[in-house]
């Protein structure tokens, strides 16, 4: 049974601004959905609409088969983890976690039992009597999750919960969140702008751009077959190389000098893309084009080489990602081959994958 | 005086440091002439008994204080001051908090609304007193007539409790604006996400206010409580003089009003000065409380 259904959901602000034109999304029970997109794409607004913190201008929001558009946040049986954690600063960790249960009129014994068991699960037993300001960032994050878990809600909502943590802790908490969600099996909606977080956490990803869902699918589906240049550029790091081109009888014509053979019915202007990790270094005879090296970033396990491809009329920037360390000279030429099965071709007008 | 001499001495050894002292000089002179000198005079006077015309005086030691603390009228004025101050502080805080909560919710015309609420603070104390005195005048004040219409026999010239109510209203009205500004700033500093978290946690708006917002406002509330008590204790002479002049009888004569009344109406300079010294001591205590606790802020 599908758990959360967004049916033609839209948001229009009183000043007439269409933050979200229309979104359809069906979330299965226990699924981990990540809403991802650049800042201002409407992902937080969408999450807050599901939470009931923003009104829904159009469409239906169903949770477990019941329409909840006009229900108060408290009556939707959801729990939310905020970006700044929103822990009540004047209450102890215990009181923070007990607050929601208390408001629902649970008995003291039941509250104590639930809080203790969640605290054990999250390793918070030692911290129950502390105030939030006596906790580290990671501990606060855990308390915020504990507060959400203790009520055993139907849906977890996460609003960029890791963005206030340092890089190392972020990776650790990312793994923990995923493990906890698997263990509890609670349907989860998670907002982030970080594509690594999105890729690693999601069962399915929703890539949002200007309030529209560009593509919905599993992380690998989005990586392998991005539906639009926007998704292509957003998913994967470093970004896919995208070059404007023309598709004609000879194939993909990047400029007068450079064209790549391809048999395709489509004619007209297109965007041609290839991921940095799919470019191969070959000798001059087998190469499709040459990269004039401008910068080399050595990360040990991999090397990112930034440069430009000379198209005659203009220089197009391109990134190549090679495994292991490499020390090519700046300004030298790197001969590259773009294997056909890794090409991504998009219609420049409709922005759709061909 | 020591401070002043010190300043002169230092300027001899460090000529380039003259400027700072020059800049604080006006403030120092004002403090000396209008605060320290009168305080010293009052302190001296408290140990003398002077005739009504100020022609002769006699050293009497602590007699003025002994007499004061054996005078039931003085205890009456302390009681009046306590009733008055706590009424003013409590109603001032409660009404201002209510207004601030309402103003925080207003979306359209917010600025106009807030500006109007701040205006009474600009009204001079005596004017505020006269204003309320007129509104409550038993023979022509609209509020008094309206009360009489509903069967309340309003006459603060005769009824001590009503007189107290009137001075409390007048004094509170002036202070509400000040409290309102602080409460509004305090409310706006409460993170929105806390309120949202509480509403997801199933707390009703009423419960949210009392369990989340109000505790988070406690530093502001405590600060305002001290400020309001100090105001009601020492800064309400004008309001009282313009409305009830301490009457009927002494039912609205606070300690400060009694200083004026005994000294300048009753011409008992010695007792008046002794009372001033008691008040100075109280101001000192309150200042200590203020610095001790407010600077450190209320813990939550």
Q: How many individual domains of chain A?
A: 2
Percentage of β-strand residues of chain A: 25-35%
Indicate the overall shape of chain B: globular
CATH hierarchy, class of the largest domain in chain A = Alpha Beta
Looking at the structure, what is the overall shape of chain A?
Answer: elongated
Give the second-level CATH assignment, the architecture of the largest domain in chain B: Orthogonal Bundle
Give the rounded overall mean pLDDT of chain A: 90
**Oligomeric form of this entry?**
heterodimer
The number of strands of chain B is 2
User: What letter string, H or E per element, gives the SSE order of chain B?
Assistant: HHEEHHHHHHHHHHHH
Give the name of the CATH superfamily of the largest domain in chain B.
MetI-like
The most extensive contact between chains is: A-B, 23 and 18 residues
Low-pLDDT ranges of chain A: none
Secondary-structure element series of chain A: EEEHEEEHHHEHEHEEHHEEEEEEEEEE
In the sheet with the most strands of chain B, the strands line up as 1-2
Low confidence ranges of chain B: 1-7
End-to-end CA span of chain A? 34 Å
